[in-house]
Amino acid sequence: MRFVKKLNAMTSRLSVQIVLLILIIIAMMEFISVSVLVANLLKNLNINTNHDVVKLFLIKIAAINVSMLFLFVIIVLLVSRVFKKINSYAFYSCTTGLPNKNYMMNNLLKEIAANGAFAALISLDMDDFKAVNDTLGHLAGDELLKQAGERFEQVLGEGDCVCHIGGDEFLFFVKSVRNKQETEVYAKEIMHQFSQPFFIQNHKVDYVTGSLGIALMPKDGMDFQTLFNCSDDAMYMAKRLGKSNFVFYEKNMNFHLYEDTIRKKEIKHGIRQKEFKVFYQPKFSSNGLFVGGEALARWVKEDGTILPPSAFIEFAEKNGLIVAITDLIVDEVCRDSLSWIQEKKEFTISINITSDHITNKDLIENLIEKISNYGVPTSYIEFEITESMVIEDFQKAVDNITRLKSFGIKVSMDDFGTGYSSLNYLKKLPIDILKIDKSFVDTISRDEKDRVLLENIINIAHGFHLQVIAEGIETAEQLAILKDMGCDMYQGYYFGKPMNKMDFEGMFL
Fold first, then answer.
1. DSSP tag of 303
2. Diameter over CA atoms, the chain
3. How far is it, in rounded angstroms, from Cα 436 to Cα 454?
4. How many Cβ atoms sit within 10 Å of the Cβ of residue 261?
5. Is 148 within 8 Å of 162 (Cβ atoms)?
C-alpha cells in the first residue's frame, strides 16, 4: 500500500516536475548562451582573451553564470518541495498518513467509474471513539486513529485502497474480492483488527470497535456518489443494530433510516416539552412496611398517550438522548421529594442511571450538583445501575460509584443474574443493594434450580453486607418463598403497578 501511495503521489506531481525540469534546462541554455555571446563579442572587438584583466572578467562572468544557475536550481528544488508538501496536505490525512477525502474525490471517483468488474465500497465508523478523546485527550485519539490506519493497511489486497475521510471514519474501496461471500470475509477481517487492544500513552484501549456498511458494485450502483450513499446508509444501520457489526446495503434501508430520523426528532421534541414523566412503583420490606419506590420513566405524549420504556429507552440510549431524559427524571424526583419532605414523609426513591453516567465522571458530578442544588437530603435518593454498565469500564464504574457514596447516595445493582454475574465484581463494587431480576422470580415456585440459585445469591450478598431486593413479585407464593430465603425488600405488581405521583401518594403515603 505504501508503494502504491508513493507511486500515486509521483504520478500526481509528474506534470509539475516536468515543467520544473524544462525551466532548469532553459536556464542552463540561457547561461551558456550568455557566456558564448560574451566570448564572441570580445573576439569581434579584437580583444586579447589571454590578457589577465580579460581572463578575470571572463572568470567572473562564468562564476556569475554558475552561481545564478546554482541559485535557480535551488529555487526550483524548493518550489518542487513546496508542491510536494501541498500535495501531501491536500490528498493525505495529517493524522494517519492515509489518502483523505480530497484524494477520494479526485482519484476514487475516476477509478470507480472506470471499473466495470465486481467491487465493494465499505464505510467504517468507529464505535465509542469519543470516549477515547473524552478520557485520554485528542492526542490519544489521533494516535489510535494512526494505529488503526496501520492495521487497516494490512488487510488490503492488490488494487485495494483505504481512505481516512475525517474524524473516526474510514472508507475502503475493494477490488480484490470477486463476490458477496468474499466481501463478507473481507469485512470480518477488517472487524478483526479491533479484536486486539490498542495501547495509547500506556493505556489499554479495548472498547473501541467498528461498524461497517457495505455497498456492492454493480448491484448498488456504478458511480462513486451512489455507492458512497449506500455504504453510509448501511453503516448507520449497523450502528442501529448494536454496533461492532457489518451490514450490506438493501433498497428498503432508506425507509428504516427515515423512520429513525423521525423517531429521533419526536424524542427530542418530547425532551424539550418535558413529556417524559415519572411513574412510581412501591417497595416493601420483609415485615410489610412501605420503604419507598422506584422512579420509572414514561413518555406522556401531547395527546395523552402513555408509552412504556420499551418504546423509547433502547433507542434513546443508542442515539445519545438518554442522558437528557435521565435529567428530566432526576429533576422531577427531586421536586416530588421536596414536597414529601415538607409533609415529613421519609423514604427512598431509586432512579435508574445509564452507562454513560457510570463511566463519565462529569455526568456523575452533574447529578450530584443537581441534587445538591435542589437541597434534597441524599437519604431520599438511590441510583440503580446494571451489570452490563460495569463491564464497559470496571475501574471507572468503581470510581464513580465511590464518588456517589461519598456524597451519601446509595447505589444498587439492578438485573443481577442476567449478565456476567461475576462474584469478583460483586466483591469489589462499592454498592449497597443487590436487585434480583424478575426472570428468576417468575420461575421460583416451580424451578428448584432457580430456588437454590436465589438462596445462595441472597446468602452471598448478606455475607458481603449487601441488602437484597427482589423485583417482579406477582403472587403470594413467590413472596412467601423469598421471605423464607431472607430477602430484605420486595417490588412487583403484587404490591402495586407503576403509577403517577397522585395515585402513588394516595395509596402509599
1. T
2. 131
3. 8
4. 11
5. no
Question: What is the grid cell recorded at 201?
Answer: 500513552
The alpha carbon of residue 259 and the mean position of all alpha carbons in its chain are separated, in whole angstroms, by 22
CB 459 within 8 A of CB 262: no
Q: Residue 227: name the closest of 109, 346, 345 by CA.
A: 109
The CB density around residue 485, as the number of other CB atoms within 10 Å, is: 18
- Distances from the Cα of 25 to the Cαs of 20, 31, 66, 70, 406, in angstroms? 9, 10, 13, 12, 78
Residue indicated by cell numbers 465500497: 121
Please report, as a single letter, which amino acid is at residue 44.
N
| CA dihedral sign of residues 165, 171, 175, 176 | positive
Among residues 129, 163, 124, 161, which one has the least CA distance to residue 143?
129
**Res 426: pLDDT:** 78
Whether residue 383 contacts residue 340, with contact meaning beta carbons closer than 8 Å, is answered with no
Tell me the CA end-to-end span of the chain in Å, nearest whole number: 71
* pLDDT band for position 19 (cuts 50, 70, 90): low
* The Cα angle at residue 126 between residues 255 and 183, in degrees rounded to 5: 70
pTM of the model: 0.58
Helix (H, G, I), strand (E, B) or coil at 490: strand
Q: Which helix or strand (DSSP H or E) is residue 400 part of?
A: helix 394-406
* Chain Cα centroid distance, residue 13: 37
**C-alpha cell of 472?**
417482579
- Mind listing the pLDDT tens digit for each residue in 139-148? 999 999 999 9
Nearest CA among 280, 370, 349, 357 for reference residue 320? 357
Contacts 24+ apart (CB under 8 A), 502-508: 504/280, 504/282, 504/293, 507/282, 508/282, 508/290, 508/293
The Cα–Cα gap between 470 and 454 comes to 10
| pLDDT at residue number 431 | 93
Alpha carbon distance 106, 120 (integer Å): 18
The Cα 295–Cα 326 span in angstroms is: 10
The answer to whether 450 touches 457, Cβ cutoff 8 Å, is no
List of long-range contacts for 100-108, beta carbons under 8 Å, 24+ apart: 100/163, 100/164, 100/165, 100/166, 101/163, 101/165, 101/166, 103/163, 104/163, 104/165, 104/171, 104/224, 107/8, 108/161, 108/163, 108/173, 108/224
| Nearest partner of 491 among 414, 409, 410, 401, judged by Cα | 414
pLDDT classification of 2: cutoffs 50, 70, 90 = very low
Band (11; pLDDT cuts 50, 70, 90): very low
